[in-house]
Amino acid sequence: MNEQAIEICSSANPIGSVIWLHGLGADGNDFAPVVKMLDLPMLRFILPHAPYRKVTINNGYEMRAWYDLFGLTASSREDEAGITETQASIEQLIQHELDKGIPSNKIVIAGFSQGGAIALHTALRYQQPLAGVIALSTYLPLKSTFASQKSQQNQQTPIFMAHGTDDDVISIETSRLSLSVLQTEQYNVAWYEYPMAHSVSMEEIDDIRTFLLRIVN
User: Fold this and answer.
1) What is the per-residue pLDDT across 59-73, written as a single tens digit (0 to 9) for each?
2) Catalytic member of 104, 113, 175, 178
3) Domain range for residue 62?
4) Is 163 a catalytic residue?
């Protein structure tokens, strides 16, 4: 990621940071309105842009994507190399926050859809304790390697996981399967369902705000 991420912060001395990853084909601007609605001036929000790459599920069309996507079913092939490469990029963003004086346990990794998959993948493998994970309308990628690669430092990290009951992009069943994997591995997951499609709702934003106030303050 060579492009400069968007930063939103109205405090001279933020007490925590939220790295928020957009979905497939969007960019960092996508969640800027949500950040404003959250109205949490004590936090710095970092909204990076995924690089452009060819996406197989979209006939090889080039768009912003955190990794290539071959399908959205449990049996679909996964772009392990792309996911791992992006994981390293997100860890660099975490390091930038550490360098600015924000301790790791005050840093949240959040994401929507494909960005949420990267948030879960990266945060739960990261080698220092984080404040929390927000995974919206998404799933846990690379489930087969998760148990062997997960980090003990983030075994107790609170996870906010939410999905729309009418999601026709990533089915709620797919997300529930990921929830089941996380629960089997003894993670602390707060699960929310909303009557919506592949999107974000005001009720969800209110719940995210409550979650962030609880884990970062």
Assistant:
1) 999 999 999 999 887
2) 113
3) 6-216
4) no
